[in-house]
Design brief:
By secondary structure, this protein is mainly alpha-helical. The chain is built from 8 helices and no strands.
C-alpha cells in the first residue's frame, strides 16, 4: 500500500524468495482480500430481503463501514503484520521493511474504527470515511508512482488491491454523501 523501493536490479529484486509458504497457500491467502467485499454484498442482500429498500442508503453506509472498511482493513493489516514477507513479495516491496509494521498497524486501526462505527453517530462515521479515504487513496497514488517510476507491475501493486484502493474510498464517500 505504499511506494515500493528499487535498486539497479528492479523493483522486486531484493532477496531469495524461494523460502516461505508454497504458492498454493499464498493464492488461497490472497482470496482473503475479497472477504470484506463479499461480506458487504451479503449484508446488502440480507438488508433488502428483510427490509426492502427502506433505509437502504443508510444501511449500505453502515455495511460498507463495517465490511469494506472494517473487516477488510483488519484482514489486510493483519497480513502485513503476521506474514510481511509474502505480502512484500506480492506487492514488489523489499522484504524486511519496517514500513510493513506501520502499514499493518494503520490497517488494524482503520479496521477497528470501521467495525465500531455502527455504535457511534454520524460524526464518527465521517471521521472513519475521512481516515479511510486519505489512507487508501494515498496508497493508490503510491501504487501508481511505483508503476510509473519503478515499472512495478507486481499483482499486489497493480491488481485487485490497487483498484480497491481507488474505488472503495470513492464508494464509501458517495454513500456518506447520499446518506
Amino acid at each position: 500500500m505504499a511506494e515500493s523501493t528499487s535498486d539497479a536490479r528492479g523493483p522486486a529484486a531484493t532477496t531469495d524468495r524461494s523460502s516461505g509458504p508454497p504458492t498454493l497457500v499464498l493464492r488461497l491467502l490472497s482470496l482473503t482480500t475479497y472477504v470484506g467485499l463479499i461480506g458487504f454484498v451479503v449484508a446488502e442482500i440480507v438488508q433488502i430481503a428483510q427490509r426492502g429498500t427502506d433505509g437502504l442508503v443508510a444501511a449500505s453506509l453502515t455495511n460498507a463501514l463495517v465490511w469494506v472498511v472494517g473487516v477488510n482493513a483488519l484482514i489486510i493489516g493483519s497480513g502485513h503484520l503476521v506474514m510481511p514477507d509474502p505480502i512484500a513479495d506480492s506487492i514488489g516491496w523489499p522484504r524486511g521493511s519496517p514500513f510493513q509494521w506501520e502499514v499493518g498497524l494503520t490497517g488494524l486501526a482503520l479496521g477497528v474504527l470501521g467495525v465500531l462505527s455502527p455504535a457511534f453517530d454520524g460524526d464518527f462515521a465521517l471521521a472513519v470515511v475521512i481516515a479511510f479515504s486519505i489512507f487508501y487513496l494515498g496508497a493508490a497514488v503510491g501504487h501508481v508512482r511505483a508503476m510509473v517510476r519503478e515499472h512495478n507491475v507486481s499483482p499486489g501493486n497493480t491488481g485487485f488491491i490497487f483498484w480497491f484502493d481507488v474505488l472503495a474510498p470513492l464508494g464509501v464517500i458517495a454513500l456518506y454523501v447520499a446518506s
